[in-house]
Amino acid sequence: MTLKLVIGNKNYSSWSMRPWLALRANNIPFEEIFIPLYTGAADKQRILGFSHAGKVPILVDGNITVWDSLAIMEYVAERFPEKRLWPEDLAPRAHARAISAEMHSGFAALRNECGMNLHRSPRAIELSDEARANIARIEEIWADCSKRYGGPFLFGRFGAADAMFAPVVHRFRTYAIEVNKQTRAYMDTMMELPAFAEWTKAGLAETLIIDKFETA
């Protein structure tokens, strides 16, 4: 039975991007169900029809429904262990889960000030000290992974941790964030990933504008 992944707008929905990328980059077949965000009660009801949490993404596998990006990737990692979404060895696997959870629950200032919007022409904005601290911490995480595991992705091969940080690559790009050469190299690696390029192309092709995400 084919998995179903319910997602929002590729241009804006960073949380949808994460599990979508994890599935596509690892050649796990799934049916994509797109429900546009903030278009009114009808589409909201469609989302609620899949999950009472009322948010995307949502994964449906037969009679199993999983919501929340990180929970979905944990489920997929158990469902398809041969795809090795997490590192095989205990220590790097714990490290990958820790930085993924940090991405999941942290970096609020960067999220709020630099919302994902693929259509946005790259240009810098004035950032708060908190957002700049977020950026420095992300660069620290990426550099530490490169030093420990040798790249080109965070834990050598593409995995769940890379999927969790994927929207940050777009944020750094579209808000013209000044980064060091090592960070730029990782961003280039991610942007050259075919699944990343596929999502980006589809997001740029979308025409629906959500005003609340166009203010930055």
Please, could you describe this protein's structure?
- Helix content is 53%, strand content 8%.
- It is an alpha+beta fold and 216 residues long.
- Helix 1 (14-25) links the parallel strand 1 and strand 2.
- The mean pLDDT is 96.
- It starts with a strand and ends in an 11-residue tail after the last helix.
- The chain is built from nine helices and four strands.
- It has a four-stranded mixed beta sheet, with helices on one face.
- The protein folds into two domains: 3-83, Glutaredoxin, CATH 3.40.30; 90-199, Up-down Bundle (Glutathione S-transferase Yfyf (Class Pi), Chain A, domain 2).
Write the layout of secondary structure elements.
Elements: E1 3-7, H1 14-25, E2 30-34, H2 41-50, E3 58-61, E4 64-67, H3 69-79, H4 90-105, H5 108-113, H6 129-149, H7 160-174, H8 181-191, H9 194-205
Parallel strand pairs: 1-2
Antiparallel strand pairs: 1-3, 3-4
Please outline what is shown here:
With 216 residues, the chain is an alpha+beta fold.
